[in-house]
Amino acid sequence: MKIVAVTSCPTGIAHTYMAAEALEKKAKELGHAIKVETQGSMGIENELTSADVAAADCVIFAADIDVEKKERFEGKKIIEVSVQHAIKHPEKVFAKAQN
Amino acid sequence: MIESLKKVRQHLLTGVSYAIPFIACGGIMIAAGIAFVPMGSNGPDFSNAPVFKFIFDVGAASFSFLLPVLAGYISYAIAGRPGLVPGFIGGYFSGQVKAGFLGAILIGLIAGWVVNWIKKMPVPKYIAPVMPILIIPILSGTIISLLMMKVIGIPIAGFMELLTHWLQGLGTGNAVVLAMILGAMIAFDMGGPVNKVAFFFGAAMIKEGNFGVMGACAAAICTPPLGLGLATFIRKKLWSEEEREAGLAAFSMGMIGITEGAIPFAASDPLRVIPCIMVGSMVASTIAMLGGVGDHAPHGGPIVLPVVDHRLMYVVAIIAGAIVTAVVINTVKALTGKKAEKSADGSKKPDRA
Predict the structure, then answer these.
(1) Fewer C-beta neighbours within 10 Å, C or N terminus of chain A?
(2) What does the alpha-carbon distance between residue B15 and residue B82 come to, in Å, rounded to a whole number?
(3) Does the global pTM surpass 0.80?
(4) Per the CB < 8 Å rule, is A66 touching B14?
């Protein structure tokens, strides 16, 4: 599967990036292609382009706060989980995405 | 119902996430500005220290925006850009009537909902373009300001005064209870929602002039990663190699106040790790509270030492908490067996003697 994800936590310094790493690692293990945009306290990094979003089979929001520029994902299948869930159980997030 | 409460929480956290850097700049710069000048009866005396006055002014400026930003971005989270005006104005008035961060949070939510409600009003086509530029800002700004000044401001201001006085006048017994609750919350989900509530309480109180709450939180924040790192170091045989590596990473993260370093340990062995880190954090926060530790920055760990009141007690609190955490988790592991449910990287590993 081609997956795009956005991670975002309130303080934006640790969880955001830990979740991104966890998702990337697990995606590699499961054989999915993934691109993760982080929305931390530095703002948006590794921004998802409209091409990225259009090509994706599924969108994952691992966020405790509102995702910025949500309009990009209109019409796409979106899985919303908490940041903690993505860090602790990335495999469950991907299982949810496959359904 | 649960879904809408979850959404409300998400909007609140969005606003908070924009506000935190303002608290950091404000708290630290103000502390730095007044640390090196004599304290007169009317406040710090900057007559001979223009540089420190400047530093202080930067901090004060940052603080002056805190409530507008908090309310403004909560409103923005709910209603988008049209939410900014009533949110910012509402936050400003919350400061004016002394309703503080509670008032700002409430008015930010109300502002967002009011704007969403106005957006739904049917308007003639030729009015539609000026809705966001003229009508919404003026209408919502007025409604929100009236609400803040005349309706909700006064009871909330009263409550804030009560809260501040209660915190200041806390007898030792109640202070210990408060500290223990804060410590437990901070360690319970290491950066998750429960942790954030305690943390935000501490951070918001900095603006209100109470640094003790944040002081207790700051000691509790770094204790789980420091304690777990210490545990893997002092009894190496109880931990696998990746756990020891994770312990080193956790220790470094603890030094800079990142609780999340403890997560790998808690994720693989929650039933044993979480109670142990809660105990350690509660010890740290209680010692900090009893020692009068105050933290002027919305952050924890040894890294904030420069802006801490009663630094010695702060260090003592952290060291005590870390040692307690390490000893307790190692004792529990020694007594109940080294094997965790699964190892830190998520795969099942055989028990190692």
Answers:
(1) C
(2) 15
(3) no
(4) yes
